[in-house]
Amino acid sequence: RSQEHKITVDLSSTISDLKAEIQRSHPTHPAPEAQRLVFGGRLLAHDTETLEHVFAGHDPTTYIPTLHLLI
């Protein structure tokens, strides 16, 4: 079942930081190790990668990225 959940984090945050925020704010509180994040058809598998790197090429002042969370 698909649901929308909005989170605001800094671009300097890592994938690990984002997963921790998802655990804190998502209604089901999924553990970070149970989360799989996908952006642009690519699994975000490197927890140390920054969001700035993930979203490179997109203007952060006009682009609001959508990630898919699989738990």
Report what the structure shows.
This protein has 71 residues and is of the alpha+beta class. It is 21% helix and 13% strand. It is built from 2 helices and 3 strands, in the order H-E-E-H-E. A hairpin with a 2-residue loop joins strand 1 and strand 2. The longest helix has 11 residues. The chain starts with 14 loop residues before the first helix and ends with a strand. The mean pLDDT is 93.
Task: Annotate the secondary structure layout.
Elements: H1 15-25, E1 36-39, E2 42-43, H2 51-54, E3 68-70
Antiparallel strand pairs: 1-2, 1-3
- Residue-averaged pLDDT, rounded? 93
**Biggest sheet details:** 3 strands, antiparallel
Which strands sit side by side, in order, in the main sheet? Answer: 2-1-3
- Please state the structural category: alpha+beta
Low-confidence stretches: none
Helix and strand sequence: HEEHE
Count of helix runs: 2
Radius of gyration based on Cα positions: 12 Å
Shape: globular
* Strand portion: 5-15%
Instruction: Please give the share of residues in helix.
Output: 10-25%
Would you report the number of β strands? 3
Considering the chains and any ligands shown, give keywords for the structure.
single chain, three-stranded antiparallel β-sheet, globular
In summary, what is this structure?
The protein has helices at residues 15-25, 51-54; strands at residues 36-39, 42-43, 68-70. With 71 residues, it is an alpha+beta fold.
